[in-house]
Amino acid sequence: MADSFLMEVCVDSVESAVNAERGGASRLELCSSLLEGGLTPSIGLLHVVKQYVKIPVYVMIRPRGGDFLYSDYEVEVMKKDIELMKLNGADGLVMGALTEDGRVDAELCLELLAVARPLPVTFHRAFDMVHDPTIALETLVSLGFQRVLTSGCDCSALEGLPLIKRLMDQAKDRISIMPGGGITERNLQRILEGSGAQEFHCSARSSKESAMKFRNTSVSMGASFSAPEYGLKVADVCKIRALNAIAKNTL
Length: 251
Description:
The protein is an alpha/beta fold. It has a single domain, classed as TIM Barrel. The protein has 8 helices and 10 strands.
């Protein structure tokens, strides 16, 4: 059982991708703008990441931050991004959409899945915003998603653990349930043991100081809650190795 688990690491840079693979990640979720929960990355980022890592790279398809209720224009962007990511080496895709009343948008998801075919597709944490997760899970199974990433509709996978376990029981191997959200070395064992999940999702990042010597601290390039200009978050090889070891010992 020691090698039966799969660790997916969410990354938004080549450095993080390389570190994740070095640390023992089995798969990458490639995004931009992790401060907003992850948006579609550039094709350039996908190209260069694919040059430096050998593990599968699943690409986020999310045109903006905020909710998961998309306009016709945004749907056009998502479909074009899916086509381009497929053409440029994506091994899988990560996406999701909801209706205004908090259901999985089955009609739109079918359209997106048709464009994505034959790549495997994960339904992302839009799932954590649904009105009824039990019904939502059955919808995802019927649509043909390979897995769902979820914190159990709570602020972290640890808090959402009771629901994650119920979803695991409901899924019955028809779809993979992948816990994610706030997973660290301190809680991974409890989450894996409590859920029975064989996959988990983490970012395992540490702060990295900017190399800039001259700094203008009077100017910010984003909104008041944006990331600091002179600090980076990068996937931490040591943290990923620690999570890898915990998972092996647990499973």
